[in-house]
Amino acid sequence: MTAARICDSPAEAVAGIEDGSTILIGGFGLAGMPVRLIDALIDQGATDLTVVSNNAGNGDTGLAALLAKGRVRKMICSFPRQPDSWVFDGLYRAGKIELEVVPQGNLAERIRAAGAGIGAFYCPTGVGTPLAEGKETRDIDGRTYVLEYPIRGDVALIGAHRSDRMGNLVYRKTARNFGPVMATAGELVVAQVSEVVETGQLDPEVIVTPSIYVDRVVAV
Amino acid sequence: MTAARICDSPAEAVAGIEDGSTILIGGFGLAGMPVRLIDALIDQGATDLTVVSNNAGNGDTGLAALLAKGRVRKMICSFPRQPDSWVFDGLYRAGKIELEVVPQGNLAERIRAAGAGIGAFYCPTGVGTPLAEGKETRDIDGRTYVLEYPIRGDVALIGAHRSDRMGNLVYRKTARNFGPVMATAGELVVAQVSEVVETGQLDPEVIVTPSIYVDRVVAV
Amino acid sequence: MSLSEHEMAALIARDIEPGSFVNLGIGRPTLVADHLPAGAGIVLHTENGMLNMGPAATGDQADPDLINAGKVPVTELPGSAYFHHADSFAMMRGGHLDVCVLGAFQVSARGDLANWHTGEPDAIPAVGGAMDLAAGAKRVYVMMTLFTRDGVPKLVPECTYPLTGVGCVDRIYTDLATFVITDRGVVVRDTFGISFEELSVRLPVPLVDRPDQPAPRPVRGASQPAGDSPRRS
Amino acid sequence: MSLSEHEMAALIARDIEPGSFVNLGIGRPTLVADHLPAGAGIVLHTENGMLNMGPAATGDQADPDLINAGKVPVTELPGSAYFHHADSFAMMRGGHLDVCVLGAFQVSARGDLANWHTGEPDAIPAVGGAMDLAAGAKRVYVMMTLFTRDGVPKLVPECTYPLTGVGCVDRIYTDLATFVITDRGVVVRDTFGISFEELSVRLPVPLVDRPDQPAPRPVRGASQPAGDSPRRS
């Protein structure tokens, strides 16, 4: 991987995403959601996607719009059902989309594991519940754990606050959420930011996502 | 756990550490090494310790001084042998100290696992080497992994740059190293810092170790 | 007299030790924040990546980048810290949170929790961070009404709804009583407008009167709630 | 003529693609940094928690909080970033580093690496980050002399020293030749002052002449190194 490319447009930033891809999409609700990249992905046309994101779309924009276009075959998320998730709800009830519900912390840790080269890990969350059914368990030091596997993305689309020209990223408040872990786990990592600054203008102590993880950046 | 206590002295900061404890000690060489806490621990007198640290002491001060006093039963580290590790070298050759060598990344990840509630994890590092001998392995997606277990501390002694009065910590340059993960994995976490500032003076975006992990802080 | 939501929240708030790190679940448990004593140094965690969360934002304070787990705009306090989702759930799973307060559909006598899914065929399952909190927090307190609107007990021998966690609940705060799950069984700690005997009759689980008061508990409130006849599930 | 350390370092530097993220092992591999072309955007990682590490610090620049994996004071460059050890090794283990350059005691014909322990009874074992790098980097380049001072080959059928990693080495840069480990065997890419035939005689592993030059390689240098008669291990 080389340093990030600063793109001129969201369209350039999402170019080349293939049908059938698994796409990690950052954000918790709308905070940190890379809405402009999703809009560009809708225009770009990739379909038959698996989307990994905490929620399954809000209102009629962003991820919800991608779902409404019928581009998503499967959602992997922790919390699809929200007051404004009517697009997903309709597709789900019509049997037009697959759903894998993953506890929120397992979602984050499985994505981290993919980025960190961990083959699998034993996790105490969900033991004895329907979400652990059929999964391997193991007792360690008197506690029962479920074996969980990494979740990788062909692509990660994330929202951040600022980037420098190398692709070092900082986030803003709780919009940080899934961005930093998804950036480690995508084969192609694209960040939507508010501003691109010159390299050297971000304090090396406060960079959250180092440039090594970032392929493309677009300021919107 | 409640917010951190700001201590008046290193002696107060290490009070109550018991014989036989496992102590995580931050630092990579001398960068981030909490030398004043180790000096206080020597005075405090706890013995029969297991020490987990990247190295096994440099020169005659800090961890080397603790070793020289015969307080350490076992070292768990990645790189004991250094040009100035004569104290450890002498004890080891005399059969007066146990040694468990752990690959550096496994050391960091095993400590993280302890802090993160992960029961065990499959790691590709060291497969087929003497350091994986006798450990369980597993093939996942065509690659072989070794099962690694958490390393917990009864105590973590770490060096940081600044703390606020709640115990939020920031570090300085590569002195960050093991501090943030050890802070998550010690039952009692003590930080030596250069300065304690008023709560609110550290930018919430740049705090590396949140106060929840820190029990005692002393400025030296 | 039975407790209002705010009285339940106040009771829970009173039971949280000064200096604790606490996560309040989405919905009713959020009310606990309004009753935490000022100056007690209780720090709120929100699983979407923040410690020392402040009150809900009002008016111009609202910032779409600063929300809680319920996606409500909130505020910072001095000493706040942000972190990403894997770090936030590592904090939770690693046992660093002292208390979490969660709502529930059902709690079993041995502390099993069901609060994420009704199991109905047309319901869309959504778990969020509930299972992580149930498995991770040092102490799990449930805040719920003791009976459904139809009068069905929510404290049950075995949960019939899909589980969130096994044996994870420590205390149950309800409008009619506070229960502590112990090795000896379900101990009734407080009652509100109902007698221990009536509770025992209306609930399908064996109850233990609170240990520090061997004599049967007098009814604290004045009037008995009308209460539908409970169906046993 | 055989290559000096700096010539080896320069050769490796020339083979690293612009924009790569690279970790240089302690000791001799550090020399590669001196030969990386300016402006190629090659970013150095040091496993003690830094990306975009600058050159060694001189004089007053030295800061005890800013060191490399060899514990030598170094400097920042614009775009540097710091992170903790678990994040640093996650970066490594997760396959995000393009190249690491490591020293070696021995490399086997199938790319096994031995570089952390001589296995002698009085040696104190110390592995550091070597196993993590061997397992994690996308490409592992070894930089070593081809023979020990006693003339013993370090490219061997099977390592006799304790392993650092199995089948992890991609290329071996030595003073006398550059080798590429392939599915077809050990390919000799370059030779320096030695012929392919002599290499084949002196090394205890089958060699493949480089694929793009089917004819036997002429000796590039003038004089043959004296070289003790190699012992086969």
TrEMBL record, chains A, B:
SUPFAM superfamilies in UniProt: NagB/RpiA/CoA transferase-like (SSF100950)
Print the keywords alphabetically. Transferase
Q: Which PROSITE patterns match?
A: COA_TRANSF_1
Q: Name one GO molecular function term.
A: CoA-transferase activity
SMART domains, sorted: CoA_trans (SM00882)
Q: Which domain of life is it from?
A: Bacteria
Leader sequence residues: none
InterPro entries referenced in this protein's UniProt entry, alphabetically: 3-oxoacid_CoA-transf_A, CoA_trans_fam_I, CoA_transf_BS, NagB/RpiA_transferase-like
UniProt keyword Lyase, yes or no: no
Family of the protein in this entry: Belongs to the 3-oxoacid CoA-transferase subunit A family.
What name does this protein carry? Answer: 3-oxoadipate CoA-transferase subunit A
Q: Which organism is it from?
A: Actinoplanes siamensis
Q: What is the lineage of its organism?
A: Bacteria, Bacillati, Actinomycetota, Actinomycetes, Micromonosporales
UniProtKB/TrEMBL annotation, chains C, D:
Pfam families from the xrefs?
CoA_trans
* Keywords carried by this UniProt record: Transferase
Example GO molecular function: CoA-transferase activity
Write down what this protein is called: 3-oxoadipate CoA-transferase subunit B
Q: Which portions of the sequence form the region Disordered?
A: 207-233
Superkingdom, natural source? Bacteria
For this protein, the record's InterPro entries field holds: 3-oxoacid_CoA-transf_B, CoA_trans_fam_I, NagB/RpiA_transferase-like
Which family does this protein fall into?
Belongs to the 3-oxoacid CoA-transferase subunit B family.
Signal peptide residue numbers: none
Gene3D superfamilies, alphabetized: Glutaconate Coenzyme A-transferase (3.40.1080.10)
